[in-house]
């Protein structure tokens, strides 16, 4: 065969067959791939970069309304003007405002933060007088801990545990890859001065006098130099307080001619700080050793990793170092519990998926063995590791990580990437089966077979790549989450094409046998007419020849299509209403199903004003129920403080959960590989078990928060209420909550309004105070010192790893009621003045915070679905809420149910916009739908360019809709909901279907060029291509079926497996049938030189 007549595939195959470099290149690819597999960082999920920061401004004494008008709204307007900002969120509270700036996903983190700092510096003049300098606190996903180590023992108090944790942290921070290391829990050392108000009154000592004494007594440092006799001597003042004894010996006044020492009016104690939070660890029923023991005081060390490092290696180093510290730095009576190990989690997830990938590869090999000879199957198998290693190597160069999505992309690609090799080897097998005259003739046959499949295979592969590429433009957090699929799948397809045309011919030439004779026509017919060929001819011939059978076939296809579309639609149109239990035969629609996790969180929000002890009591009640669940290994209680943050908690504002009325339980479960029950079922069990406690505390908000399977949102069901009057917005929220509560499958209902608390307002009689020589500022400082205490500096201790604060306070028992305020004295011009003589105490209602989004005041109402999709309860609630009356002549409108973000219209009326997972769902399905359409358009344009006409490409793409006949029934059969991952499978199927159609059409055209009539051409083309098409389909089904059991990506596996099955079977008959009906009366042109161009 003249080399000039070869296309790219033929020339590449001929070149590879004629050089000894081909095996060397394959060995090189193999080695590079192994290096990439080891060096590429591993993570459970892709990193989602969402640059964000909190801007905090304090303004003492300002009401939430003042803070909103003077600080929050101006800041939101200024910061929202920056390019790259997605949303701003404001919170106006008493004396403080917080504006959270969320940049768009994918914005450069450092550039965004620099931009934010620059904008703040340029607008400092907008900060009102009396307000503090803005504090900017970045929210960095890289600061989320990958390892949490909990130290616990009943033999140590919080101070000793924290000291131990600090020493352990010092050993862990230098480890390679470790970044931020925080300590959660424990108590700091301090010198505490517990004042005795009665003694202070007796001696005539006031709080402001004490301020002055402590400030004046704790001073020192370098004061200068003495220069003389050619020598400089440094002079140092050693006036610092160094112990509790030093503090107690301070003279604070005089009475009856005698000195009054500090120890005379207060007890001075060097020890742990007063309890302001609790951190404990408890062990569940799954921990046979620890179960039954009392909860232990604990301190946790939370360690993050540096960006770009391998979480597996970092946590392995941490765990190895911990083992070396046990029995040495860490005493034997201290238990070390790894309560978070993201590296191990990532490694387990990756290893499991690598195992699944191996199972899928073995399944594909078995299919090859059944349809082809063992040699041909081995050749196809050799292509797989080379392709995967190329993908991993390119991923390493592109700073990709190996994560669950990466491996799912490879599993998804597996059936596709062997397709090129199958097509090539099957055609080589068919040609060699005819026999050759010589070894030279064998090489020519292989080149001819390779060249013959070149044009359609290259175009078909490009078509599949075009189906994936638009997915790279999905916006929002789902974009980077799903990015490994449009990155890895096209690379795998391109690599498979190169490998198929380089290595397959080279190996086939040396390995596949061939008869060295010219067969007779009868032998050729007998050899080539295999069982697939015969079966296809028996089925397809009546379909082509008999009109009645054709009509019945079209009717069956139409009914199957109608049935498949009815499955997801029935829930929306059924007489019983959209919400409620799913009807049998219905396919559920949702964003992503819940993942099977090894941990979840229980958040507790008691009414504001609840004491730390009462919050702790409720937390213990909940823990007692949690610990008896057989699937719980351990749990960590954080009362009055936030636990180690995770990505979900970071975006939900968990960093601010540090009030006495707030708590959380981090519950760890038996590893999912070792239990048969799904984590959401465990949560459901505990939700029922906790129902009595939740009912006993109706004013509290107790939520069971599961880690989301994909990008986190503020809440799954989230309503944002806008309007011109904030008090009315709060009232509307109460009505909306009632509708939420009345809706099936809705739980954990909450709002941002909060509960109004009674507060004591102290009003100073300024005239009387002025006469007595007392300033209002004195009263303010005295009250702060009395109620909260204050730090009067620090004592100097060389061995301490953190400042030992000098804390002045009244004991808790002396500051419990309003009557205790009478104990406060301030200095007047004639001596101590009792506060009650110049001020009155009134009971008032505390002012509630004001929230805003993008400068619009907003009230949030949140909830979670118990077990099902958020779509149905949300649509049900929307039908009741939209247009509902909120006041005479005033109705509430709803919005946010379209594919574009809705802008609040709150100037004159009231509106509720849906956000949360519904917004994410609409955005994702909009983007994936657009990607699907764009992919089809690109494929169509490719077909037009290839065939040089407009009608034939439509025929090639016609079976795309046939995938639905398999997709929705497949979801129904497997009980899987139709999710975003199902949609990804649907997009990928478009390329597969077009690929099969293209190969069929090309062979039909080939037969027609050889002079066959239309009927013979379509039947022979279908029969000849049936085996490689079925092989490809079975490879896709075998490769992707392993995903069906995955709780998150099961939809992708179902779409690929069932969609491929239905589309392949129907395509093999529909394409020849449509072409026959279209061209049966059209003669083939005598001059076919204008047909498709050579590639």
UniProtKB/TrEMBL annotation:
Domain of life, source organism: Bacteria
Protein's organism: Mariprofundus ferrooxydans PV-1
Record field: transmembrane: 12-39, 353-372, 379-398, 404-425, 458-483, 489-508, 548-566, 928-947, 954-974, 980-1005, 1026-1044, 1056-1078
The protein's name in its UniProt record: Acriflavin resistance protein
Pfam families: ACR_tran (PF00873)
GO cellular component terms listed in the entry, alphabetical order: plasma membrane
Keywords: Membrane, Transmembrane, Transmembrane helix
GO molecular function terms listed in the Swiss-Prot or TrEMBL record: xenobiotic transmembrane transporter activity
InterPro entries, A to Z: AcrB_DN_DC_subdom, Acrflvin-R
Keyword Repressor among record annotations: no
């Amino acid at each position: 065969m003249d080399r000039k007549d070869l296309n790219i595939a033929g020339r590449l195959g001929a070149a590879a067959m004629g050089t000894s470099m081909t095996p060397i290149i394959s060995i090189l690819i193999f080695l590079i791939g192994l290096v990439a597999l080891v060096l590429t960082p591993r993570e459970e999920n892709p990193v989602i970069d969402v640059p964000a920061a909190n801007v905090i401004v304090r303004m003492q004494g300002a009401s939430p309304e003042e803070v909103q008008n003077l600080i929050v709204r101006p800041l939101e307007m200024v910061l929202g003007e920056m390019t790259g900002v997605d949303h701003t969120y404001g919170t106006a509270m008493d004396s403080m405002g917080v504006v959270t700036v969320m940049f768009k996903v994918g914005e450069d983190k450092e550039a965004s933060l620099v931009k934010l700092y620059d904008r703040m510096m340029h607008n400092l003049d907008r900060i009102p007088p009396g307000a503090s300098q803005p504090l900017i606190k970045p929210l960095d996903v890289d600061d989320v801990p990958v390892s949490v180590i909990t130290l616990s023992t009943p033999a140590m108090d919080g101070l000793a545990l924290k000291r131990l944790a600090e020493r352990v942290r010092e050993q862990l921070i230098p480890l390679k890859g470790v970044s931020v290391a925080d300590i959660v829990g424990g108590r700091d050392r301090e010198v505490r001065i517990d004042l005795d108000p009665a003694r202070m009154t007796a001696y005539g000592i006031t709080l402001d006098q004490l301020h002055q004494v402590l400030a004046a007594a704790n001073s020192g440092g370098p004061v200068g130099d003495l220069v003389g006799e050619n020598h400089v001597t440094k002079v140092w003042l050693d006036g610092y307080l160094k112990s509790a004894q030093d503090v107690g010996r301070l003279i604070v006044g005089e009475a009856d001619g005698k000195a009054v020492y500090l120890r005379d009016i207060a007890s001075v104690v060097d020890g742990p700080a007063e309890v302001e939070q609790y951190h404990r660890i408890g062990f569940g029923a799954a921990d046979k050793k620890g179960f039954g023991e009392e909860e232990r005081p604990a301190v946790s060390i939370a360690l993050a990793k540096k960006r770009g490092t391998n979480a597996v290696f970092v946590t392995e180093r941490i765990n190895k170092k911990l083992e070396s510290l046990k029995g040495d730095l860490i005493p034997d009576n201290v238990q070390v519990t790894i309560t978070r190990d993201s590296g191990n989690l990532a490694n387990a997830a990756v290893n499991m998926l690598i195992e699944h990938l191996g199972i899928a590869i073995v399944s594909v090999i078995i299919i090859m063995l059944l349809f082809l000879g063992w040699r041909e199957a081995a050749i196809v198998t050799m292509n797989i590791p080379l392709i995967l290693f190329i993908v991993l190597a390119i991923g390493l160069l592109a700073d990709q990580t190996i994560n669950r999505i990466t491996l799912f992309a490879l599993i998804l690609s597996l059936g596709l990437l062997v397709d090129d090799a199958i097509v090539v080897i099957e055609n080589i097998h068919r040609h060699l089966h005819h026999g050759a005259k010589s070894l030279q003739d064998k090489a020519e046959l292989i080149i001819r077979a390779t060249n013959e499949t070149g044009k359609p295979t290259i175009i078909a592969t490009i078509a599949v790549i075009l189906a994936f590429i638009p997915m790279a433009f999905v916006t929002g957090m789902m974009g980077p989450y799903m990015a490994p699929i449009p990155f890895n799948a096209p690379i795998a397809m391109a690599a498979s094409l190169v490998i198929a045309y380089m290595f397959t011919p080279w190996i086939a030439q040396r390995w596949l046998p061939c008869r060295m004779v010219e067969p007779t026509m009868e032998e050729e017919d007998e050899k080539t007419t295999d069982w697939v060929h015969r079966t296809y001819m028996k089925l397809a011939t009546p379909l082509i020849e008999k009109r009645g059978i054709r009509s019945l076939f079209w009717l069956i296809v139409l009914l199957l299509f109608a049935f498949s579309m009815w499955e997801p639609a029935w829930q929306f149109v059924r007489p019983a209403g959209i919400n409620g239990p799913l009807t049998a035969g219905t396919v559920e629609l949702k964003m992503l199903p819940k993942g099977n996790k090894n941990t979840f969180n229980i958040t507790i929000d008691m009414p504001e004003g609840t004491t730390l002890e009462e919050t702790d009591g409720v937390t213990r009640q909940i823990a007692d129920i949690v610990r008896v669940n057989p699937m719980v290994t351990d749990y960590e209680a954080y009362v009055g403080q936030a636990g180690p943050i995770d990505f979900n908690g970071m975006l939900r504002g968990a960093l601010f959960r540090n009030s006495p009325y707030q708590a959380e339980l981090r519950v760890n479960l038996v590893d999912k590989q070792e239990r048969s029950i799904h984590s959401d079922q465990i949560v459901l069990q505990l939700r029922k078990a906790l129902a009595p406690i939740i009912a006993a505390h109706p004013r509290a908000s107790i939520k069971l928060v599961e880690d989301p399977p994909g990008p986190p949102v503020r809440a799954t069901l989230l309503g944002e209420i806008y309007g011109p009057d904030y008090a009315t917005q709060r009232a509307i929220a109460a009505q909306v909550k009632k509708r939420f509560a009345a809706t099936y499958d809705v739980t954990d209902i909450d709002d941002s309004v909060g509960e109004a608390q009674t507060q004591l307002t102290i009003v100073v009689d300024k005239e009387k105070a002025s006469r007595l020589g007392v300033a209002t500022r004195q009263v303010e400082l005295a009250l702060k010192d009395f109620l909260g205490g204050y730090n009067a500096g620090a004592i100097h201790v060389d061995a301490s790893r953190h400042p030992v604060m000098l804390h002045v306070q009244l004991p808790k028992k002396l500051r419990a009621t309003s009557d205790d305020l009478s104990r406060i004295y301030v200095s007047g011009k004639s001596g101590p003045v009792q506060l009650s003589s110049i001020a009155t105490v009134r009971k008032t209602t505390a002012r509630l915070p004001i929230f805003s989004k993008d400068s619009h005041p907003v009230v949030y109402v949140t909830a979670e679905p118990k077990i099902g999709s958020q779509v149905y309860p949300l649509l049900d609630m929307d039908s009741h809420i939209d247009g509902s009356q909120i006041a005479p002549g005033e109705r509430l409108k709803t919005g946010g149910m379209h594919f574009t973000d809705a802008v609040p219209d709150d100037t004159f009326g009231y509106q509720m916009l849906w956000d949360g997972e519904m917004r994410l769902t609409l955005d994702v399905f909009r983007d994936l739908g657009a990607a699907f359409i764009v992919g089809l358009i690109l494929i169509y344009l490719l077909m037009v360019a290839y065939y040089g006409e407009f009608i034939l490409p439509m025929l090639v793409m016609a079976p795309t809709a046939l995938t639905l006949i398999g997709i929705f029934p497949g979801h129904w059969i497997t009980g899987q909901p139709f999710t975003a991952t199902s949609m990804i499978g649907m997009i990928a199927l478009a390329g597969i279907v077009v690929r099969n159609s293209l190969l069929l059409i090309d062979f039909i055209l080939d037969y027609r060029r050889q002079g066959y009539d239309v009927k013979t051409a379509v039947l022979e083309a279908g029969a000849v291509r049936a085996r490689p098409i079925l092989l490809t389909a079975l490879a896709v089904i075998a490769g992707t079926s392993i995903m069906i059991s995955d709780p998150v990506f099961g939809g992708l596996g179902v779409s690929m497996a069932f969609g491929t099955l239905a589309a392949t079977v129907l395509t093999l008959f529909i394409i020849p049938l449509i072409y026959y009906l279209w061209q049966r009366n059209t003669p083939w042109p005598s001059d076919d030189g204008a047909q498709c161009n050579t590639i």
